[in-house]
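$ fold --in a.seq
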Amino acid sequence: MACDVIGISRSVYRYQPQPRDDHPLIEVLLSLVDRHPRWGLPKLYKRIRALGHGWNKKRIARVYRQLKLNIRRKSKRRLPNRCPQPLVVPDASNVCWSMDCMSDMLYSGTRFKTFNVVDDFNRQALAIEVDISLTARCIIRVLDRIAAWKGYPDRIRMDNAPEFTSIALAEWSKDHHVELNFIQPGCPYQNSYIERFNRTYREDILDMYVFDTLQQVKDLTDEWIEIYNHERLHDSLNDMTPMEYLLAA
């Protein structure tokens, strides 16, 4: 009668919430964050579901916030693109590659460079060459090594770095019938795929560790490429890894 008076059912009145055991979720979250420190909540949630766990997004977000795992973001002023250039996605693998160079420093102060190559179709990391200096001959050697197991692409997109505008690379492209597409100077958005890849690589590896030797950079980079191609889910690939997207194509 009391329940009828206040307008609730007897089951609601007798309901006793059951305490939730979040320890399994906490262990999975901490293990993923320990392995991927730069992954945010969306990426962690997708990886947890890909591993077969059934926790919903709200529960994962609640535990994620309780553990204070939020990544602090640097705010910066963004200017609008005055003349944006369309970036066409290839309809098949090995149609177009993107490549670029990066630089960093060892603890001793010795600078080193990396040469990065990705396949635009499925964002697959094809190679990251790490060395003190990268000449045009070294670039050609890496491209031939990739082509040995993947084949030569139809074209390669790149900026106007000295290593890419050399006569040796131009002759190599002519010999292997590979078209070289150079972006406009000062327009990195025209090479967005490799620029986004570079950012992820810098956040996950170059900015995350202090390197004593060049071999440490190479070892961590090789391990990261395996994770990037086989474990890291991409929003632009319908929440699939590069290799899953390639197999599904």
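$ fold --in b.seq
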Amino acid sequence: MEVIIQPDAAAAGLLAARMVAAVIKDKPHAVIGFPTGSTPIPFYARLVRMHREDGLDFSRITTFNLDEFVALAHDHPASYHAYMEKHLFGHVNVARDRIHIPDGTAADIPSYCRQYEDDIRTAGGIDIQILGIGPDGHIGFNEPTSSLGSRTRIKTLTLQTRRDNAAEFGGEDKVPFHVLTMGIGTILDSRMILLLAFGAKKAEIVARAVEGPITALVPASALQLHPRTVLLLDEPAAARLTKADYYRYVYEHKPDWQNY
């Protein structure tokens, strides 16, 4: 697990965009896993800017999103279909038939989840999966106690996660109880994982995920098992890491060919 600490969220978002751009330039038909939430917004803004100003070409990539609410219309303003359109897909030249976002309105959810897994495999697997981390350590919507080998499936949101999403729905009582999410096992199948975490509120859970034991109570701790996981943090999110100085030292002394 590589930990990269940047001065602020803007700098971390820029570095994340550079890393993804490098993947696309090296492999124009790359398969990319995308997240939602507030954390990746600066990252998406940078990708859009790279497309407009530097000609970064999204036309051949294939995308898979992590999750979506169950029984929520795609055009609902709080849906992740709407989110991705607002922050990325509506601004770059991604091919519409290469976009995959879980369909929470599917009539047969177990069958649909199996098909989503099949679609990822058919596409060749995910080359780089971008993640955020919840305050309780969830990745995607794999809440604490999720199986570390889990696959795409329906999950019940915790009370805290529903509260965290209340503003987007206009009240906690309007937040769905259920979501579809890639499983932890699905995420770990990705060739590279890039996790973004910003702000002091994430400091404790980042430390537990990076330096604590691997446990289903902190789903993000499973990333310790992955051979190529990069954590991009701002200074406040890194504040509880006992080895922060070492992580900075390693990053400052990387060989040139490893720099992003």
